[in-house]
């Protein structure tokens, strides 16, 4: 067994040499130390065979012809371990000194060459100046004749040095003086290779030398020997395991040890071997030099970049510190040696595989491991395994993300995990973490097989596939655990750091170096929040403070990927832990936690509400931060909003574009639902609608300071705009804000859910009348059509909506969408608020769309129910309404229709020619429209409802050309109207036509030719054109067209009957009272009545007193 270990270790350290564990200054000092001590050593060294303690050499070395010191050393090196162990310490020390003498230039020059190579000395002295003395001498020896005595002596001396003399030379230089002083030289009893040949010597020094006085370089050399001794023990214990598990590996090589580490959790590995590996891992975590492969491959880089950070050579330096330093060098653009990069990758994987390689976790998480990871901890205690490969680390990281404080690891454990993630650079390579690698292997093979490795490209690909069918739950969980830490330090995202480092330093006070010497934890990167700062700069309007294009692209990518989970948004998650636990504990879908917080914005704690509000504002301005919309609407964005997508910067334009196409037939249901959900969220604050906020913020502060929700703000600004329009004054709100207000009103009309106040007050009516109206704008249209049957509160809400829609047609969703083609055809250049007026003009065109025609007529019917629904009428007749009809307005409810009462009042004044010209012209338009469609006359509909159904039923459904009104006029002429109110209303219609022929479109149409021929020069108004026709009828009736003559004669008869009807005496006291109350001069009548009553009362008093006096006189 001992022979096997010797062979094993000879391979293990053959190529390593001491240079990877001893400091360079030891090697530099070696020549001077040797030179200084050579003479003293030569003087102290006597003939070994004559020493009292070396008498056994005389017995064991009798076969040798010579008894000089070199011969005795040569003989002793052939001894077995038991023979060497039997030699006294002073004899061993003498032999050790002789072996050391062989490496002294002065000994070779002054003793060896003169004694054995006098003739060849001149040729051989040139080797004294070579880098490797004995390598040069060996070359010279091979050139000498075989019979030469010098040749034989050189061969004996070179053999006595041993194959590993070069590595031992460093130990001689570092510890030779103290070894001589304490007489600690010892032979290689166990025949160990390389520096382990000095194990006995080192153990003697440790036992007898004072640690405080021991030279630092000697301490380093002794530590290196102890580390190699540990490896010797490990391979001794694991020799069988190595053969069974790693047969392809050469015993003792660095790759053979790494192979054993990979199989550390293999059930086939013996517990003794696993314990040795665990012990070595712990030692490696405390001192990187235990890993000879890393120390050797990266020695130059470690020295060049000062990775020991001023720690003396005899002190331990943590593996994590070295890895962080080398990672920092690489991240900052400096090339490392290829073999060092290989070792770095291996050790990063090892860190994530075994938590015991991280002393911080062992100490800082000592209590958390058994508390939160009992199963993995039990496996470690029972089987001696750390876990099945990174499970304890993932378990701890999972509990860093826990919502409830009692389920979270301690702060110091979290800091230890942060250091581990940074040292292992787990965010750069998905294969570093064994748990992630196992969980995501199949996902990578399918979804990311064409992605180039390196710089976190595969990690980014995996994140992009969260929420897709390719992603697996176990992969998503493991991935989000790693990304939780990556999100909290922008330096852990290689692409982001590479492209944004300079901008982060410039604008966000980030550190210049990837790894901070003063603070290796993630703080203070978590404090200033570098990524949010970069995100703000990405959309800065200051041209002198903008990100570079590559950085801008990476910031957008990272913000998009972070949005999938609140865990990846530290600026939100850190403030909302309790709210997430309370409201959103069961939600796991992509983006669902943020939606949950947004839905419950009013219920969140103040700090959480503030950060969620800020995040939602940014989300509205940058669509990539909304993972649900990004996942469901990608096709829609490419198809309908490609210009915005290609422009790079969003600024809220993408959301506006998606909203405008929300109800397109090619949009999928998921995208439509995601858009509407964000619209609903945006109702909570006008700040959540970017374009609206930017355009209207100062005006909101000025006019609507008390408004809380966006709908309240919109309603407030809309009222200001409406009042400015009615008063015909300059708008106080600029065009950009007005357009945004209209856009918001338009969106509200599309869905009841976007108007929560309306949905609440009308919930019963929606359920009763409109439960099947689920299309865009249908529910609202249904409520409008059922106005007369609505409850009071719902009726008031609908009134306000109708007033808004009819005041600005651009906010009427049903009108705009139903009449889209007609608007494009007939009203392409018309302002949005005048669309209804324009469409009314063309509604009777033969090519006019029937669906649009129906909507336009319905809007006209609504307008005629209340003058407040007609801003043109309000503007034209405002003064006349105040003068003649103010009593009707005063007595009305503010949010209820007047049912045409004000228009009736204006019609009466129109008949009397008392209206201003502007108002009269507007009334003519209204009367013309009503004459053609009785539905536009609510008073007529009310008073003549039964007559219309009985006498004019055949004209009801298709009446658009005045048939119903003409039918009622004919019935009036035939005395078929029984209802007094209906008689009066029809008589009023006839009388209105008497005032101006334009009010009677049927008569006007029949007499168009005659009007042009005979009355073209007659001014309109005050019945002048009608008088012209009547004069022609009296003077030359045959000159008129037959149809005109017939209709004119009927109209004249109607005028007489109407005048008689309107002039009929009152039939009862009730009609008298009704007429007085309705009269504008009712106050005058009231004064006359009171005066008459008072006069009667005074007369009675006077006559009463006179009568009383007369009676008195009579009685006397």
Structure explained in plain terms:
- InterPro entries: Cys-rich_GLG1_repeat, Cys-rich_GLG1_repeat_euk, GLG1.
- It is a single-pass type I membrane protein.
- It comes from Drosophila arizonae (Fruit fly).
- Its main location: membrane.
- This is Golgi apparatus protein 1 isoform X2.
- The protein is an all-alpha fold and 1116 residues long.
- 65% of the residues lie in helices and 0% in strands.
- The chain is built from 66 helices and no strands.
- Helix 9 (133-142) runs antiparallel to helix 10 (149-161) and helix 26 (434-447) packs across helix 28.
- The longest helix is centred in the C-terminal third of the chain and has 34 residues, at 1082-1115.
- The protein is rod-shaped.
- 44% of the residues are buried.
Could you tell me the radius of gyration in angstroms? 52 Å
Task: Quickly count the helices.
Answer: 66
- Biggest sheet record: none
Average pLDDT, rounded to a whole number, is: 82
How does the overall form come out from the CA principal axes? Answer: rod-shaped
N- to C-terminal distance: 168 Å
Per DSSP E runs of 2 or more residues, the count of β-strands stands at 0
